[in-house]
Structures are given as structure tokens and as C-alpha cells.
Write a structure and sequence with these properties.
- The protein is an alpha/beta fold.
- Helices cover 59% and strands 11% of the residues.
- It is built from 17 helices and twelve strands.
- The strands form three sheets. A five-stranded mixed β-sheet has the order 2-4-5-7-6. It has a five-stranded parallel β-sheet with strand order 9-8-10-11-12, with helices on both faces. The protein has a two-stranded antiparallel ribbon with strand order 1-3.
- Helix 13 links the parallel strand 8 and strand 9.
- Helix 2 runs antiparallel to helix 3 and helix 6 runs parallel beside helix 8.
- The protein is elongated.
- The two termini are 85 Å apart.
Length: 597
């Protein structure tokens, strides 16, 4: 059976809705037992006389018995769910019970009115009207049941009123029919409201269930995405570490070779090999920058600094790339002094400029600075391919590149803008983008202007590897890779150092007991559960116990996993990242030996 239209009194709703309507009707039965019992006592006491008391008593007993049976039946059915497949049989059963109930109430005038006084007649009529009103409240959830109840009562009640032959009673019979008709209209409206509320509840329940399903699906998708991202990070970290080891060793050997006597042809080959090694190192450093942002170990060091020297450095480093493509690269002069981390600001601008040069084939790239109140807006303009509005958010996602479906190596890894965005967020500096396809783009970085124009003096340049070396410095180097140990020994000896190399902590401690080093350098990832930070701590403890002095140290790591980066940064030991250029290694050693770090 299809669902009943909202205005229908004669058609039942679909099973699921009808089951709820019937539960409402059944739940109303018990609350009418006591009022009905009291009403029957009052009717018997007031209306009984010598002529009708037997009939009236029998009528009261029948009515009370029916009411008690209906209450017992309703309670029994409400203990469990109303089976959907039985709802139409239950509706027919309740219709029968209420038809019987209405007919019994309709026989009350036949028992009482022939001998009733006017006051008693008024009581009978008022009782009938009250019972019908009460039935409206309890049965309107299923309008058809109320209709049958009222119809059976009318069929028993109206003929008796009409047969009394009194014009007043005849008018009363007509009024009763009109009154019952009005109640049927109210029953229809009430039933429609109840029907709509039940349907709405079902729809809400279905919506909630769908939301639960969608929420669970979204959670599953989120977990899957997190797992995929974690797997990606682990893969990148593992791949990066495994790649950094041989490239780091290669750089050490190339550094040794560069200090050797070579023919011109050999030096040209060395230059090409060094360039290839440097290109690989730069790509790995890009991955490292991204991993450092993910790990949350980018700690800004905010100070006042002049912007123009930073722009000059970027122009000196990147202008050759623009010249090689035949495009113009310009920096507008500025005297602004910013309040931020100069290294991070330089890295952001460097990535923005590199990206602009990479995607500009004609025209040029311009860096400018505009004052905006207490801030300065650093702008990088280009006349490149531009970015459609639908892709302007995507370009800041990692590994996302426009126009590089073939993943050409010279176009980078797609991390430059993601790194720039991450560093800008670490600094709290908004980074925005405006672009038009085919016309170019402009990236804007808003940076606070320093409250004072006094710029701290520039620190003197660190020693260069072209100096006389580090004569007589004894270095203890710990690394579990034989090729790296060999390369480090050769390079340190070229610098005039004495080098003891160990594979692990136990071997390093044995070397320390024989000869006390001046500085210890350790790889962070060693075999077994202990790290380079543990190795440095053990060596320092051994030196402190034996020689009674502190020993400087350096950590070198090829790890880019966020957890490892956080652990290494928390050790408090100066950290270098593989592959380490010989010049950078030399300068770092010089700094820790002089107590600058």
C-alpha cells in the first residue's frame, strides 16, 4: 500500500510510518483507564434508578472490561517493536476495538434517556461529547480509526435521539452530526501534522545515518590520505638518506681531488663532475627544506636587517640563470630595514625568483619593495606563463607543477612555492599571489618594517677552505659508511688535520682512550638503536672524565624524516646536512673550534 496523501482519512500510510502512528495510539490507551473508570462510577450513581439499574450496571461492566482489555493488549504490543509486516493487521484490529468502543458509548442514550430528567439528559449528552473529544486526542494519529469510532457512535446515538420525537432532541441530533463532522476535520488536520512529523523524523534519521556514513567515509579517506602522506614522507626520507650518503662521499672525494695537481683536461672534467654533484645536492637540499618545514624545526631568528644586501645577493646568484634564457632580471634599490629572519626571507625570495625565471620565456623578472604603513610588501613580478585562478591555490602544494607533465629535471621538483609558503607561515608573513594566464604573475610577501633603522653589524666572513687549513687539529669522525669514512679521512688530511675514524660508539670510545681528539664529528644515523647524538655525549663524557675538558662537536645527517630532524635539532649540537660541501664543512669546523657555535 502506498503512503496516504496528507488530506486522506480513508487510506493508511506506508508501513514504516503507520507503525509509528499505531504506537502513538497504543501509548494513549493506558492513560484513559482510570478517567474512564471514574466516569463510569459517576454515571452509574447519577443515572441509575429502579427501571434501568440492571442494564446500566451491565453496560458499565462491559465498557470497563473492554477498556481493561484494550489497555492490556496495548501494553503487550508496546513491549516490543511493532513489526512492519503486521502493521495493517494491527490497524484493522485497533479499528475493530475502537468501533466496538464507539458503539458501546453510543448505546448509553438507549439505556438512560427514556427515564432521565433534563439534568440527567444533559449529563448523558455532555458525556458523549466529552468522550468524542477525548477520542480525538488519542486516536487522531490514525484518522481512519477515529472515523470508525465516531461513525459507530453516531449510528447508535443519533437514531435514539431522533426517535424521542421531541423537536429539541431532533435539533440536538442534527447538531451532533455537525459537531462530529467538525471533529473529523480536526482529526484530519491533526493526523496530517502527526504524519508529517513522523516522516520528517524518518528523513532526519536517514540524513543522520547518511551523515554518519559520509563522516566515516571522510574519516577513512582522511586516514588513507594521512597514511599515504606518511608513507610518502617515509619514502622520501629513506630515499633522501640513501642518496645523500654516496653523494656526500662523492663531494668529499671531489674536494680531495680539487686540491691535487691536475692537467687542464682533468680539471675540466672535475669541474663538470662537481657541477653535476652540486645539482644533485641542490635537489636534495630542496627536499630537506620541505622536510624541515614539515618537522616544525624552522625556528625564525628575528632581527633588524637591511633588505638591499639580500636583494643584491639574490641578483648575483640568479641573474646568470635569467641571462642564459635571454630575459631581463632587475632589482629596484630600496633602503628599507625589515624586522624578520634575514635567512628565511632570503630563502623565500630566492624560491620565488627561481620559480619566476623557470616559467618566464620572454620579458623579465623584477623584485621591488613598497611601504604599506608599518609593513613593507616585497614583490616578485614576472612576464611568464601566468596561472589560472583555478590553479592559484594548487601551486603552493608540494610537488605540484604547471606545464611539466613530463617531470623534466631542469624544472625542479615542484617544491619551491610550497617551501616559500611554509617559511612565510613560520614567520607569520602573508604570502599572496595575483596572476593572469599568458601575462605573468606577481607574488607579494608582507614583512614588518623595523622600528629602528639601526642595523646590527655584519659578522665577519667565516674562514674559507682556501686558507692554510687546520694544521694539527685531531678530529674523531664517526660514521657507519666506509666510503664516507675514507673520503673524510682523505679530506681532513689535505687540510692538515689528524683524523681517527670509527664505525660506532664502542670503537670511538676505544680511540678516545688512546688519543684525545680536539673535535668530534658524527653521522646522526648509526647502526643499532643509538644515534650520533648519543655517540657525541658518550665521547664528551669520556673526555671529561679523562682530560677534564669539554670537547666541541658537529652532527652530520642525511635524514629528512620529520621525527629525526626534530630529534637532531633537540640535541643542541650544530647540525650539517648531507651532502656537505667541503667549504661548508671546513667553515663549520673552524666555527666550533673557535667557540662560535
Amino acid at each position: 500500500m502506498t503512503d496516504a496523501p496528507p488530506g486522506s482519512l480513508f487510506r493508511l500510510a506506508e508501513p514504516r510510518t503507520l507503525a509509528e502512528q499505531l504506537r502513538l495510539v497504543l501509548s494513549n490507551v493506558s492513560v484513559t483507564v482510570i478517567p474512564t473508570f471514574l466516569l463510569l462510577i459517576v454515571l452509574f450513581v447519577v443515572l441509575q434508578d429502579d427501571e434501568n439499574w440492571q442494564y446500566l450496571l451491565a453496560w458499565c461492566v462491559i465498557q470497563m472490561t473492554l477498556k481493561l482489555f484494550c489497555a492490556w493488549d496495548a501494553r503487550r504490543r508496546l513491549r516490543g517493536d511493532v513489526p512492519v509486516e503486521d502493521v495493517y493487521r494491527l490497524a484493522a484490529w485497533l479499528t475493530f476495538l475502537n468501533a466496538l468502543d464507539g458503539a458501546i458509548w453510543g448505546t448509553l442514550p438507549w439505556i438512560t434517556l427514556d427515564w432521565a430528567t433534563i439534568a440527567e439528559a444533559v449529563l448523558v449528552i455532555a458525556t458523549i461529547a466529552g468522550v468524542v473529544g477525548s477520542a480525538l486526542a488519542s486516536l487522531a494519529a490514525v484518522p481512519m480509526v477515529f472515523l470508525i469510532f465516531v461513525s459507530c457512535m453516531l449510528l447508535a446515538f443519533v437514531p435514539k435521539i431522533w426517535l424521542l420525537g421531541d423537536p429539541a432532541y431532533n435539533a440536538l441530533a442534527i447538531i451532533a452530526v455537525l459537531y462530529f463532522g467538525m471533529l473529523l476535520g480536526q482529526a484530519r488536520n491533526t493526523g496530517r501534522a502527526i504524519h508529517g512529523a513522523i516522516r520528517l523524523r524518518f528523513e532526519n534519521r536517514e540524513l543522520i545515518e547518511r551523515l554518519h556514513v559520509e563522516t566515516e567515509n571522510a574519516r577513512a579517506a582522511h586516514r588513507k590520505a594521512e597514511d599515504a602522506n606518511l608513507a610518502k614522507s617515509k619514502f622520501l626520507a629513506a630515499a633522501s638518506h640513501d642518496l645523500r650518503q654516496p653523494i656526500h662521499a662523492e663531494g668529499l672525494f671531489l674536494g680531495v681531488l680539487a686540491r691535487s695537481a691536475l692537467t687542464e683536461t682533468q680539471r675540466q672534467v672535475l669541474t663538470s663532475a662537481s657541477a653535476a654533484s652540486q645539482a644533485s645536492a641542490e635537489m636534495l637540499d630542496t627536499l630537506l627544506d620541505f622536510s624541515r618545514i614539515e618537522a616544525g624545526v624552522v625556528q625564525p631568528v628575528v632581527r633588524a636587517f637591511a633588505l638591499q644586501p639580500v636583494l643584491n645577493k639574490i641578483e648575483n646568484d640568479l641573474a646568470p640563470q635569467a641571462d642564459a634564457k635571454g630575459i631581463v632580471f632587475r632589482c629596484r634599490e630600496t633602503g628599507v630595514v625589515l624586522d624578520s629572519d634575514p635567512a628565511l626571507v632570503e630563502q623565500i625570495l630566492r624560491n620565488l625568483v627561481s620559480n619566476a625565471i623557470r616559467y618566464t620565456e620572454s620579458g623579465g623578472v623584477l623584485i621591488g619593495c613598497r611601504r604599506r604603513g608599518r609593513d613593507a610588501v616585497l614583490e616578485v613580478w614576472d612576464t611568464g606563463i601566468g596561472i589560472a585562478p583555478s590553479h592559484q591555490k594548487d601551486v603552493f602544494r608540494e610537488f605540484h607543477q604547471l606545464g611539466n607533465a613530463a617531470r623534466e629535471r631542469h624544472k625542479g621538483l615542484g617544491l619551491g612555492l610550497a617551501i616559500a609558503q611554509g617559511m612565510a607561515q613560520a614567520l607569520g608573513h602573508p604570502l599572496g599571489l595575483q596572476s593572469q594566464p599568458g601575462r605573468g604573475s606577481v607574488f607579494r610577501l608582507r614583512v614588518p618594517v623595523a622600528a629602528t633603522v639601526t642595523v646590527p653589524p655584519v659578522q665577519p666572513a667565516a674562514p674559507s677552505s682556501d686558507t692554510a687549513g687546520l694544521p694539527g687539529v685531531r678530529v674523531l669522525f664517526i660514521d657507519d659508511d666506509e666510503s664516507v669514512r675514507d673520503g673524510m679521512r682523505r679530506l681532513l688530511r689535505e687540510w692538515g688535520c689528524e683524523c681517527d675514524a670509527a664505525e660506532g660508539i664502542d670503537e670511538a670510545l676505544a680511540l678516545v682512550r688512546g688519543r684525545c681528539p680536539d673535535v668530534v664529528v658524527s653521522d646522526y644515523r648509526l647502526r643499532g638503536p643509538r644515534t650520533g647524538a648519543d655517540a657525541i655525549a658518550a665521547v664528551r663524557a669520556e673526555v671529561q672524565a679523562g682530560a677534564g675538558r669539554a670537547i666541541p662537536a658537529l652532527l652530520i645527517t642525511g635524514d629528512t624524516a620529520p621525527d629525526r630532524l626534530r630529534e637532531a635539532a633537540a640535541s643542541g649540537v650544530p647540525l650539517l646536512h648531507k651532502p656537505v660541501a667541503p667549504t661548508d664543512l671546513y667553515n663549520a669546523l673552524a666555527r666550533v673550534l673557535h667557540g662560535d657555535e
